[in-house]
Design brief:
The complex is a heterotrimer of chains A (218), B (215) and C (257). Chain A is mostly helical and 218 residues long. Chain A has helices at 8-46, 49-63, 67-80, 87-113, 116-124, 129-159, 171-182, 185-217. Chain A is globular and about 75 Å long. Chain A starts with 7 loop residues before the first helix and ends with a helix. With 215 residues, chain B is mostly helical. Chain B is built from 8 helices and no strands. By secondary structure, chain C is an alpha/beta fold. In chain C, strand 4 and strand 5 form a beta hairpin. The radius of gyration of chain C is 18 Å and the shape is globular. The chains are: A mainly alpha (218), B mainly alpha (215), C alpha/beta (257). Chain A binds chain B through residues 1-3, 61, 64-70, 72-73, 76-77, 80, 158-162, 164-165, 172, 179, 184-187, 189-190, 192-193, 196-197, 200-201, and chain B through 59, 62-68, 70-71, 74-79, 156-160, 162-163, 169-170, 173-174, 177, 181-184, 186-187, 190-191, 194-195, 198.
C-alpha cells in the first residue's frame, strides 16, 4: 500500500482541533487530580477512621487497576446510576480521579515530611488543626512535591489518549475519523504521535523551569 | 450487587486473566531486552549509539503507548509488517516499556558511586571488567525495586491491547459491561484479578530484593 | 484587680511517657508580670513542663490554670479543640528551632494568625506586623523570606509573631540554644525589653547569666521534680541543694572549657 503523507493537509484542521481538545482535557483533568489529590491525602491522613477507610479502599482499588478499566467503570457507571454526562466530562473525571490517587500518594509523603514544629508553631498561635494544615502544612508540602506532580501531569497528557475509547473527540479519536475516510492509519498516527511529542516536550520544558525556580527559592 | 451474575461470568474473566499474565510476561521479557540494549547504547562511548539510545527513550516515553500500538498494528501493514493483535500487543508494549526500563537501569548504574569505577580502574581493570565485576553487581541490587515499579505499571498497561481487541481482562470487562449493564460488578471482578497479579509480582520483587541485599 | 490569686497556677502536674515519669507532681505559681526561669539538665522535664502549659504535651495528671481558666480541661474532642485554640491565642510560645513558616514572608508569618483568628483587615494586620517587627528590630526585613535571615533574626521574627497575638504570657523554650554564640545577644536584648514592659514570661534556658540578670525567680528541675527554687541571687550564688550545686558547677565548667 505504501505511504502517502499528502493526504494529511486536507484533514489537518480536524486533527489540530482534536489536539486542542486534548489540551483542554489534560488541563481539566490536571486540575481535578491536583485538588482531588490534596483532598484524598488530607482525608487519608487526618479524617476519622469511618471516613478514612472508604477513601483508602478507593485509592487501593484505583492504584491497582488499569486506567482504561476505570474509564469504563466511570463512563458506564455514571449512566448506570442515572447520570448521563457527556463523554468529555466522564473523561475529565476518570483521568482526574486516576491521577488524583497517584498525586495523593505524593502529597501524603510530603505532608508527613513537613517538620512537626510547623504544626506546633501554628497550633500555639491558636490555629485549629485544619487551619494549620490549610495555611501552613499543605502549602509547604505542595511546593516540595511540584516536580513529581509535574511528571504525573506529563503522564496524564499521554494517558489522555485513552479517553478516545469512550468516545471523547480528542486528538486520537480525531485521527481515527480521518483514518476512517482515508484508510491511512500509519500517516495519521505518526502525525498524532508527533503532536503528542511536541506537547510533551513543551510540558517538560515548563516543568524544568519551574523546578529551577523552586530550587532557587529554597 | 448481582453476585449470581458475577459467579456466572467469573470463569470467563479467569480465562482472560491468563491472557493478561501471558502478555505481561512476554512484554516484560521483551522490555528487559530492549532496556539492556538501550542502556548499553546510552552509556556507550560512541556518540551515535548514545544519540540513538537517547532518541529511543525520548520518543517512546514522549508519546502515548496507545498510539505506538496503533501505528504498529494498524499502520504496520502499510510498511509490510503483518502482525496479529496479540503479537502487536507484545511488541508494541514491550518496546514501550523498554524505554522506561532503560531509564531505570541507567539510573541505577549512574547511582553506583563513581568512585567505585575509579577504584576498580586504578586496580588495573579495563572499563568492561570494572563494569562487569564492580559496577553491575551493585547496580543490579539498586534496580530491583524501581524495575518492580515498572512491572507494576506494565501489568496495568496491558489493558491497552483491549483497544486492538485482544481478549484480555479489560476487553472482557468491557464486553460484559456492554452486554449486562453491570459496570460495578464487572469492574470489581477484573480489578480483583489485576490486583492479585500485581500482588504476586510484588511478592516476587520483594523476595528478589531481599535476596540481593543478603548477598 | 487583685494579685492575690496567681496568674498562672500549675497544680500537681504529672506526666509520663509509658513507664517513664517525666514530671512528678510539679507545683508552680506565677504572678502577673513575673519572669520565671527554669533551668536543669536535659531530660529534667523542663521543656515538657513548658509545653504542657499550652497543652502541646498534655499532662497525665494535675491542673494548669491561666487566671480563671483551666487550660487542660477534659472536654469532648470538639469542645476541647475550640477551648484550646482560644487559650493558645493568649499564650505566646517561642521554640528552640524558631519554626517560622518558610513559605511565607516575614510579614505574613506575623499577620497569618491575627488575620485568621482575630479577623483583622489587611491594613490592620500590616500595621500590627510593622509595630511588632519594629519592636524586635526586624522591620527592615519585613518582606524577606525566613530562609534569607540569620538564626538570631529568625528568632526575633518568631517573637514578633507570638507577640502579635497580644498574649498574656510568653513561653520561651530554649530560645537561644540553637543560635551561634554571637547571635544570642540580639535575642536576649529583645527578651530583656519584654521584661522591662512587665510581660509575664516563663523561660526555659541554659543561659545562666541571662537568667540571673532578667528573671525574678529561678526553678532548678532535675528528674521530673523541682529540686530548688528561689530568687536568682540565691539559686546562682548560694544554692542550698547539692544537686543544684553540682549542676551549676558542671555547667560553669562546661562554659569555661
Amino acid at each position: 500500500m505504501g505511504l502517502d503523507f499528502s493526504v494529511i493537509p486536507k484533514y489537518l484542521d480536524i486533527v489540530l482541533l482534536g489536539a486542542l481538545w486534548t489540551i483542554a482535557i489534560t488541563v481539566g483533568a490536571a486540575i481535578v487530580s491536583f485538588f482531588g489529590g490534596i483532598f484524598l491525602a488530607v482525608t487519608a491522613l487526618y479524617a476519622p477512621p469511618v471516613v478514612r477507610w472508604p477513601f483508602r479502599a478507593f485509592s487501593f482499588l484505583f492504584l491497582g487497576t488499569p486506567l482504561l478499566l476505570q474509564l469504563f467503570l466511570i463512563y458506564f457507571g455514571l449512566v448506570q446510576i442515572g447520570i448521563d454526562v457527556p463523554a468529555f466530562v466522564a473523561g475529565v473525571i476518570g483521568l482526574g480521579l486516576h491521577f488524583a490517587v497517584y498525586n495523593s500518594e505524593l502529597f501524603q509523603t510530603s505532608i508527613l515530611a513537613v517538620d512537626k514544629g510547623q504544626i506546633e508553631a501554628a497550633r500555639t498561635l491558636g490555629l485549629s488543626r485544619m487551619q494549620a494544615l490549610r495555611k501552613v502544612v499543605v502549602p509547604q508540602a505542595v511546593r516540595d512535591v511540584i516536580p513529581p506532580i509535574g511528571n504525573n501531569m506529563i503522564a496524564l497528557l499521554k494517558d489522555s489518549a485513552l479517553v478516545s475509547v469512550i468516545g471523547v473527540s480528542e486528538l486520537t479519536l480525531s485521527a481515527q475519523r480521518a483514518i476512517g475516510s482515508t484508510y491511512r492509519p500509519f500517516e495519521f498516527y505518526v502525525l498524532v504521535a508527533a503532536i503528542y511529542y511536541i506537547i510533551n516536550l513543551a510540558m517538560e520544558a515548563v516543568l524544568r523551569r519551574v523546578e529551577r525556580r523552586i530550587q532557587a527559592s529554597k | 450487587m448481582d453476585y449470581a451474575l458475577m459467579q456466572r461470568v467469573f470463569p470467563f474473566f479467569l480465562e482472560a486473566a491468563w491472557i493478561t499474565i501471558l502478555l505481561s510476561v512476554l512484554t516484560a521479557l521483551l522490555g528487559l531486552t530492549c532496556a539492556m540494549l538501550g542502556t548499553a547504547a546510552r552509556l556507550s562511548r560512541f556518540p551515535v549509539l548514545r544519540f540513538l539510545g537517547a532518541a529511543y527513550v525520548s520518543v517512546f516515553r514522549g508519546t502515548p503507548a496507545l498510539i505506538q500500538l496503533f501505528i504498529l498494528y494498524f499502520g504496520g501493514p502499510q510498511i509490510g509488517i503483518q502482525l496479529d493483535a496479540f503479537e502487536a500487543g507484545v511488541i508494541g508494549l514491550g518496546v514501550n516499556v523498554g524505554a522506561y526500563m532503560t531509564e531505570t537501569m541507567r539510573g541505577a548504574i549512574i547511582a553506583v558511586d563513581k568512585g567505585q569505577g575509579e577504584a576498580a580502574r586504578t586496580l588495573g581493570m579495563s572499563l568492561a571488567q570494572a563494569m562487569r565485576n564492580v559496577i553491575l553487581p551493585q547496580a543490579m541490587r539498586l534496580m530491583i525495586r524501581p524495575l518492580g515499579v515498572n512491572f507494576n505499571t506494565l501489568i496495568k498497561s496491558t489493558a491497552l491491547v483491549a483497544a486492538i481487541s485482544v481478549v484480555e481482562l479489560t476487553y472482557t470487562a468491557q464486553r460484559y459491561i456492554g452486554s449486562t449493564y453491570k459496570p460495578f460488578e464487572m469492574f470489581l471482578i477484573a480489578g480483583l484479578l489485576y490486583m492479585i497479579i500485581i500482588y504476586v509480582v510484588g511478592l516476587a520483587v520483594n523476595w528478589a530484593d531481599r535476596k540481593a541485599r543478603l548477598n | 484587680m487583685s494579685d492575690q490569686t496567681p496568674f498562672i497556677d500549675i497544680r500537681h502536674a504529672k506526666k509520663s511517657f509509658g513507664n517513664l515519669e517525666v514530671l512528678k507532681d510539679i507545683n508552680l505559681q506565677v504572678e502577673r508580670g513575673q519572669i520565671v526561669a527554669i533551668i536543669g539538665p536535659s531530660g529534667s522535664g523542663k521543656s515538657t513542663l513548658l509545653r504542657a502549659i499550652n497543652d502541646l504535651d498534655p499532662l497525665s495528671g494535675g491542673e494548669i490554670w491561666l487566671e480563671d481558666k483551666q487550660i487542660n480541661k477534659s472536654l469532648p474532642h470538639r469542645h476541647y479543640e475550640k477551648h484550646i485554640n482560644e487559650v493558645r491565642q493568649e499564650i505566646g510560645m517561642v521554640f528552640q528551632h524558631f519554626n517560622l513558616f518558610p513559605h511565607l514572608k516575614v510579614r505574613e508569618n506575623v499577620t497569618l494568625a491575627p488575620k485568621m483568628l482575630k479577623g483583622l483587615s489587611d491594613a490592620q494586620a500590616n500595621a500590627l506586623a510593622e509595630e511588632q517587627l519594629d519592636k524586635v528590630g526586624m522591620l527592615e526585613r519585613i518582606d524577606y523570606y525566613p530562609s534569607q535571615l540569620s538564626g538570631g533574626q529568625k528568632q526575633r521574627v518568631a517573637i514578633a509573631r507570638a507577640l502579635a497575638m497580644k498574649p498574656k504570657v510568653m513561653l520561651f523554650d530554649e530560645a537561644t540554644s540553637a543560635l551561634d554564640p554571637e547571635l544570642v545577644e540580639e535575642v536576649n536584648l529583645v527578651m530583656k525589653k519584654l521584661a522591662e514592659e512587665h510581660m509575664t514570661m516563663i523561660i526555659v534556658t541554659h543561659e545562666m547569666g541571662f537568667a540571673e540578670s532578667v528573671c525574678d525567680r529561678v526553678l532548678f528541675m532535675d528528674q521530673g521534680v523541682v529540686v530548688e527554687e528561689g530568687p536568682p541571687e540565691v539559686i546562682f550564688r548560694n544554692p542550698q541543694n547539692e544537686r543544684t550545686q553540682n549542676f551549676l558547677r558542671k555547667h560553669l565548667a562546661g562554659q569555661q572549657a
